[in-house]
Structures are given as C-alpha cells and as structure tokens.
Amino acid sequence: MLAPDIPRTPATVDEFHDRLAAITEGLPRRLRQCAEFVAARSDRIAVSTVADLAAGSGVPPSAVMRFCRIMGFSGYSDMQRLFRRAYAPGLPDHATRLRNLKDRGGGSPGALMAEFVDAGRLSLEILAKSLDDKALDRAVGLLARADMVHVIGLRRAYPVASYLAYVFDKVQVPAMLHGGAGRLDHRCALRQGDALLAIGFSPCSEETLALAQDARARGLPVVALTDRPDNPLAPLSDAVLAVPEVDFGAFRSLSATIALALTLAVAVGSMRG
C-alpha cells in the first residue's frame, strides 16, 4: 500500500484530471500556475517539453518537475507517457493478429491477397473523398519554397519516408532522410529556409516528435503526414495531411499513404519547376 503522503499515479487521463481538480486550490502559487495551465492545455502535454510547459505556465522548469511529483509521477517523461498512450489506437500485437486470422479460417495466401487488395481499394476511395485540398495546397507550397526538405518517419512510417526521399531526389528536390541510425538525429542539419516533412502514425515515435518540436522551435515550417487529425504531430505542424487506412485483421497497409506521398513529392517538384 502507498504511504498517505505519496499520491497514487493516475492510470488514465480522466484520473489525472480528477486529481488535478482536487488539489489545485491548495497548491502554492507557482504550482497552482502550473496546474491551471495544464488544466487548460492538457492536450499539449503529449507534444511539449518541460521548457515549453514551464514557459507557458510562467514558472521555472523545477516547478514543473515538482508539479509532476505532486501528481504522482516520477518525472515529466512519466506524466507525458500517460498522454501519449491516449493517442494509441490500442491494436493487438502481431502474434495476436496472426492467431485471429487463423481462427477465422481466412489465412490462405489467395484469400489474404484478396482481403488486402480490398482494404487498399477502400483506403484509396476514402482518401479521394476526404482529403483536405487546402491543406494539400498549403503543404506543397511550404515544401516547394524550402531550400532543403528534411524527411522523417520511423517504424511503420519509414517506408513512406524513404520513398518520399527517393521521389524527391528523382524530381530534383533537395531532400534529406532522417533515419535515426546509430541514434543520430542530425537535427544540427536543420537550417533557416528549410522545412520538415514528418510522417507519423499513432502512436507517433518520440524521435519524430522531437525533431518536429525542434524544427518548430527554430521557426521552420512543418508538414505532417499522419493517420489521424489528432495525432501528436498535428499541433506542431503548419499543414496536416490525414490519411485513413482501412485494416484487415488489424494489419494496416500503406496504399493510400503511398499514393498521397507520391502526389506530394511530384506536386512539389512540379511547383519548383
């Protein structure tokens, strides 16, 4: 059992807000400033640094860390993790997905092919109907004006990022692929006049978010290619392109995402002439 003076760590965002409401009035001035800012901007926790939260609250970073501990967390990263989990779609692991397919009796190669083709077709149809043309025009304009387009996308987004870098090269758009090899983020390569194209699916990788935060802090334009408009990349971006992908057996293809990526790269190359 936890000691009475040690708060229990909130397990959900709702529990977090319940505790926040219960303790705010009794906090010292600086911690109350932090609590009030968090209450009004809790959606920013998933994508903000300690420095961002401190600046927004008008308190030193040390006060933010004390606030995290009062809320029951070991530190800021621990608190941030709770909010980033809220963006995760909660898909089962891959072993469970394969087992579910076998249990349904639809695991023959031909049947799988037909299902994935159908999921891809539906994804493309949804993209054609739901794409925000104004957001696409804005994204193309921002990237076309950039001296260098920095591209990042890890895990499931990596094939999209590498394909974009390939097409950018073929249409003679200066581009740099950030792959995270050797845990090198190459953020020092970001220069004034550049732009960042960040690809991230929920839950978005911390490395992608960190580079987007850094680009934003430097005043560089950021374009996000995501699967959901409420992805943590969205608040950091000047243009957000959301691509819904229909899944089969909880496996999601990249059919619509690749189509949009190709459109983006070719349109940027065309605008640059």
What are the main properties of this structure?
11 helices; alpha/beta; 7 strands; two-stranded antiparallel ribbon; 273 residues
Question: Strands, helices and their partners?
Answer:
Layout: H1 13-23, H2 29-40, H3 50-57, H4 61-70, H5 76-85, H6 94-104, H7 109-130, H8 133-144, E1 149-152, H9 158-170, E2 175-178, E3 195-200, H10 206-217, E4 222-226, E5 239-242, E6 247-248, E7 251-252, H11 255-272
Parallel strand pairs: 1-2, 1-3, 3-4, 4-5
Antiparallel strand pairs: 6-7
Helix pairs in contact: 2-3, 2-4, 3-4, 7-11, 8-11, 9-11
Textual characterization of the structure:
By secondary structure, the protein is of the alpha/beta class. 51% of the residues lie in helices and 10% in strands. The chain is built from eleven helices and seven strands. It has helices spanning 13-23, 29-40, 50-57, 61-70, 76-85, 94-104, 109-130, 133-144, 158-170, 206-217, 255-272; strands at 149-152, 175-178, 195-200, 222-226, 239-242, 247-248, 251-252. The strands form two sheets. The chain has a five-stranded parallel sheet, sandwiched between helices. Strands 6-7 form a two-stranded antiparallel sheet. Helix 9 (158-170) links the parallel strand 1 and strand 2 (175-178). Helix 2 packs across helix 3 (50-57) and helix 9 (158-170) packs parallel to helix 11 (255-272). The protein is globular.
